[in-house]
Design a protein that fits this description.
With about 425 residues, the chain is α+β, with helices and mostly antiparallel strands. The chain is built from 7 helices and 18 strands.
Length: about 425
C-alpha cells in the first residue's frame, strides 16, 4: 500500500525566512484547517499526521514473518499471535495498547495498513486460528462481507460463483419438476389402480362368456334319452381366435427381459403361427374346440384356461397327446376330451356363469379363454419356455354374445366349423367320446 507524506502543519503561503532583499516580511494569517465543530484531539491528530509511511522497496514488514505449521491455537494463543503481527505491522508508530487485538486494531486504525501483501501474510497466520477467531477476523477484514475476507474476489471467482448459482437454480427446477412428475405418476396410478383394488368390481355380465338356454330332452323318447341337445358345432366368429403369439424364453442366468426372444422361426415352434384355431362352445358345460394341421393332436401338449379380465385363472386344463411330452411343472388339471380327431379336438372346461366369488377376496366373471400349444423343454436344452398361444375374449363395446351350443351322442362324428381364416376354411372332423 502506498502511503502519503507527513502532513505539514504550516499553511501554504507562509514564509518564515528573510526575503530576497534581506528584509523580513510580515507573516500572513493562518487559515482554518477544519470546520468548526469537527476538531480532532491533539493526540489523535498528531498520530494520524504521522501514521502513513512512504512505501519501502524492501516490501511489507510482515513478509518475512515465520509461521510454523502445527495444530490449531487456542483462543488466547491466537490473540497473542495476532497482537505480535499487528505490532510488527505498525512498525515505529505510537500505539494505544489494548489487550483485545480487535480493540487494538480499531483504536489505532491499523486496518488502513492492510494491503494485499499484509492480507496474504495474515491468511497464512489464520491457518492455525480456531474457528471462532477465523469468523471474527474474516468479517472484520472484509468490512462485513465475509465472501471477500482476505481480499476482493477476482473476475474469474465472481464468474464461477454465478455459474454455481445458476447450476443450483437449475438443479432446484429439476428437483421440483421430478417431484411434480412423481406426484402425477402416483395420481395416475391411483386412478388406474383403483378398479384393481376394489373388492366389488363393476358388473361385467355383458362381457362374460354366457351360455345359451338349455334345451331339455323329451321324456320317454328312447332316441333322445342319451342325446345332448343342440345343433352342429358352428363357431361364433366373435368367440374365435388363432394361436399367433409365440412365447420363447432362452435358458440362462441373465434377467428375464434379456432372455425373451421376440422373433422365433416357425420351424422351432410346436405349430406354425396362425395354423391353430380355437373357439368356445357349450355341450355339457363349457367346451373349447381346437383345429389345426392334420396329425397335430397326437403330438400336442395343450393348455387351456378360463380367466377373468385381470387374467386370474378360474379353471385350467391340460391335454397331452400319446406322442407328446409336456414341460415339467406345467400347472393344470387333466382335461376331459369331449370330441377327438387327428386335426381337431374338443376339451371340456368349467366356464362359470355369472359373478364368481374368489377365494382371495372379491368377485369376477369368466371373460376370456387363453389357449396354447407348449413344446417340451429339458433342463439341458436351449429353451426355458417355448409355446404358441392365443386368447378368446368378447371385444369391448360389442353386444352380449351367447356361446353356441352343439349336440349329439357318444360315437357321433362331428365336423368342427371354426370359420374362414388366412389359410381357408378351418374345419376338422372328430368323434364324440
Amino acid at each position: 500500500m502506498s502511503n502519503d507524506e507527513p502532513v505539514e502543519d504550516e499553511a501554504p503561503g507562509v514564509q518564515q525566512g528573510p526575503g530576497d532583499d534581506g528584509v523580513d516580511e510580515p507573516k500572513l494569517p493562518e487559515q482554518a484547517s477544519t470546520e468548526p465543530g469537527i476538531e480532532l484531539s491533539a493526540g489523535l491528530r498528531q498520530r494520524r499526521a504521522t501514521f502513513f509511511r512512504v512505501r519501502s522497496d524492501t516490501g511489507s514488514p510482515v513478509d518475512d514473518l515465520a509461521i510454523e505449521p502445527g495444530h490449531r491455537w487456542t483462543q488466547s494463543e491466537a490473540d497473542r499471535q495476532i497482537r505480535i503481527f499487528l505490532i510488527r505491522l505498525a512498525g515505529d508508530r505510537r500505539l494505544t495498547h489494548r489487550t483485545d487485538p480487535v480493540e487494538l486494531v480499531r483504536e489505532n486504525d491499523l486496518m488502513l495498513l492492510f494491503g494485499p501483501e499484509e492480507e496474504a501474510a495474515f491468511a497464512r497466520l489464520a491457518l492455525r486460528f480456531p474457528d471462532e477467531t477465523v469468523a471474527v477476523w474474516a468479517t472484520l477484514l472484509s468490512g462485513g462481507d465475509r465472501s471477500e475476507a482476505f481480499g476482493p474476489r477476482s473476475r474469474a471467482e465472481r464468474r464461477d460463483e454465478a455459474v454455481i448459482e445458476q447450476a443450483l437454480r437449475l438443479g432446484m427446477r429439476k428437483r421440483l419438476g421430478s417431484a411434480l412428475l412423481l406426484i402425477g405418476v402416483l395420481a395416475g396410478g391411483v386412478l388406474l389402480g383403483r378398479p384393481l383394488l376394489e373388492q366389488d368390481p363393476t358388473d361385467r355380465t355383458d362381457r362374460s362368456l354366457r351360455f345359451s338356454a338349455v334345451e331339455e330332452p323329451v321324456d320317454g323318447d328312447p332316441d333322445v334319452v342319451d342325446r345332448v341337445p343342440g345343433g352342429l358345432p358352428v363357431a361364433e366368429p366373435v368367440l374365435t381366435a388363432v394361436a399367433d403369439r409365440p412365447v420363447a424364453i432362452l435358458r440362462g442366468e441373465e434377467p428375464l427381459a434379456e432372455r425373451i426372444m421376440v422373433r422365433v422361426p416357425d420351424s422351432a415352434l410346436p405349430v406354425p403361427r396362425g395354423a391353430l384355431t380355437a373357439a368356445v362352445f357349450e355341450h355339457t358345460g363349457g367346451q373349447v374346440a381346437l383345429v389345426g394341421p392334420d396329425g397335430w393332436v397326437e403330438s400336442a401338449c395343450i393348455r387351456v384356461s378360463v380367466v377373468t379380465d385381470r387374467l386370474r385363472p378360474l379353471d385350467t386344463v391340460l391335454y397331452q397327446g400319446p406322442d407328446a411330452a409336456c414341460p415339467t411343472g406345467l400347472t393344470g388339471r387333466l382335461a376331459a376330451v369331449t370330441c377327438l380327431g387327428s386335426a381337431g379336438i374338443v376339451l371340456a372346461i368349467q366356464i362359470p356363469q355369472g359373478e364368481v366369488t374368489l377365494v382371495e377376496g372379491g368377485t369376477g366373471w369368466a371373460e376370456a379363454v387363453r389357449f396354447g400349444i407348449e413344446s417340451p423343454v429339458s433342463p439341458s436344452g436351449k429353451w426355458e419356455a417355448l409355446a404358441v398361444r392365443g386368447t378368446i375374449s368378447v371385444p369391448v363395446g360389442s353386444d352380449s354374445v351367447a356361446v353356441p351350443r352343439f349336440g349329439g351322442t357318444v360315437g357321433d362324428e362331428l365336423t368342427l366349423d371354426l370359420g374362414t381364416g388366412a389359410s381357408g376354411r378351418r374345419t376338422a372332423t372328430c368323434t364324440l367320446v
